[in-house]
Amino acid sequence: MRFFPVWAIAWLVAVGAAVIIRPPLPVDETRYLAVAWEMWFRGDYLVPYLNGAPYHHKPPLLFWLMQAGWAVFGVNDWWPRLVAPLFALGALVLTGCLAKRLWPENIATARMAPTILVGAAFWSIFQTLTMFDMMLTTCALLAILGLVDASRSDSWRPWVYVALGIGIGVLAKGPAILLHILPVALSAPWWRQGLAQTTPTPPLSWKAWYGRLLLAVLAGAAIALCWAIPAGIRGGEEYRNMIFWGQSAGRIVESFDHARPFYWYALLLPPLLLPWLIWPRLWRDALARALPIDGAVRLLCAWIIPAFIVFSMISGKQLHYLLPEFPAFALLIARLSARDAALAGHKLDGVPAAVLFAVLGAAMLALPIVGDHIRAPDWFEHLHPYWGALMLAAAAIVFVFARRSAFAAGATMSLSMVFLVATVHLVADKALTVAYDLRPIAKALKTYEDQGYALANAGTYHGQYQFLGRLKTPLTETGLDQADTDAFVAAHPDGVLVTYYDLERLPDFPADAEPLGEFRFRDYKVVLWRAGLLLKYPTLADRT
Fold first, then answer.
1. Does residue 257 surpass a pLDDT of 50?
2. Cα 389–391–395 angle (5° rounding)?
3. How many helices (H) and strands (E) does the chain have?
4. Residue 511 neighbours by CB under 8 Å, 6+ apart
5. What is the distance between the alpha carbons of residues 328 and 344, in angstroms, rounded to a whole number?
6. 370-398 pLDDT per residue, tens
7. pTM beyond 0.90
């Protein structure tokens, strides 16, 4: 375990199960794959494109890294789905490094922190997804590591890490990176006092500190502008306005639309931190011996609290907005549990987590019974509930090992959580394929594209078929504007139209209207038609 630690095994199990079993999920994962693919075949690595139009919603770093892997391995399906998980692995490494910086005298905390992080329920799930927030988290960790080192040294080198964290973070997900870094940087006079020092440190001028912070922010901005300025010039006025305004202040203003209440994060955060919040040893240690509010704990508070307040005040909330704060939560939990990490715990320490995993396993095994008594979707019958037995075994193991040392308990619960993620994928293997696998549709569209037919999609198109079918021509959106629909049908009566119908409200198709193909997506029937049929049956493509 010294050379391949528990947290690395946990990462490998969760990510391996997701990449091998689960298809790319629409609409987010398939959309990001489509953007990278369109940049690739266009040979344009400056401006992201989606369905033939500049894509201004996200910066290009994720798409660049996907294409970098294709340049090495060739175009494939597996590499782009590993990019974000590899950043998650990097974040686990940096979390351990940060623990060593914050508590150099307590190596147990550094050993446990990545294990705690990878075992948190939300992290275990999210590390398998092709999203931008794991990149943002890694960049935040890099910058905060630089701030800790800068507080102990008069060298400029740590500020290079801060600038890189900011610059790469902006390229990963925009200026949101500053919300996770600046509160820590600005509050340095508060947390530096009481931070453990391994060697004598020179006096620190706070005037110089804030001056260097400003330079680091400007250097990070310069890194991002090296892409944004030429991209804005090439992408045109609308694209330029969106990447310089719409991705920062404009999006923040719009997020105050009525969405979710301010207490939403407070309600959902505890379940996301399972199983650690139901670990008796953690609460027993916390109540028996209060955690010293040293400089490291103050830094973590400056990391968590401002971000939590800001995101709670903004109405437009998503769970992954707080993902960059999860390493801070893991560090706090590791610090609490690692003070006597080698000592055995109480004999009942494994009961709550064992009950949790046993209940989830029993629920999986009971899926066929549940399906007989509820109005379940069609894909429900494709579940494989017998895999739930794995969670019953995990519950028994947790019950035994969670009573031992903090190391053994932490490793057991983390591995059980990622095995839960893997088990869910095994249970839903066939169901995910039936409900979410768009590859058969995409391959059919590719066949028609190769034959020279124009393609169209009934309704808003999110690029979900572009990468999966390796399509190189945009799909026209029909049904949104009647003039555009009429123009497409008139120009391409032999074109192929993708339509969607609710399985529970399927219309009676005209007897002389022969589909080009019929498929399944979630609770929809997807049908391919000749576009010219709309001349005879104008409502044929209407969604039901």
1. no
2. 120
3. 25, 7
4. none
5. 26
6. 776 677 777 778 889 999 999 999 999 99
7. yes
Assigned token pair, 38: 């369109």
E-state strands within 428-469: 455-458
* Residue 79: DSSP 8-state: T
Give the separation between CA 508 and CA 518, rounded to whole angstroms: 14
CB 521 within 8 A of CB 500: yes
Q: Average pLDDT of 221-232?
A: 96
Question: Which residues does 432 contact at the CB level (< 8 Å), separation at least 6?
Answer: 21, 22, 23, 425
pLDDT of 259 higher than 70 = no
Q: Strand pairing partners for 496?
A: 455, 530
Q: What phi, psi does 4 have (nearest 5°)?
A: -140, 80
- 304: tokens are 């968590």
Residue ranges of domains in the chain = 6-195+221-337, 351-435, 438-536
- Name residue, tokens 């890194």: 223
Beta bridge partners of 53: 50
| Helix/strand/coil for 27 | coil
Lookup result for tokens 């330079």: 215
| Residue showing tokens 């401002």 | 306
Pair of tokens at residue 296: 């490291």
Rounded Cα distance between 58 and 51, Å, is: 15
Q: Which of helix, strand or coil describes residue 53?
A: strand
Alpha carbon 536 to chain centroid, angstroms? 45
The three-class DSSP label of residue 19 is: helix
> Contact, 185 vs 162, CB < 8 A?
yes
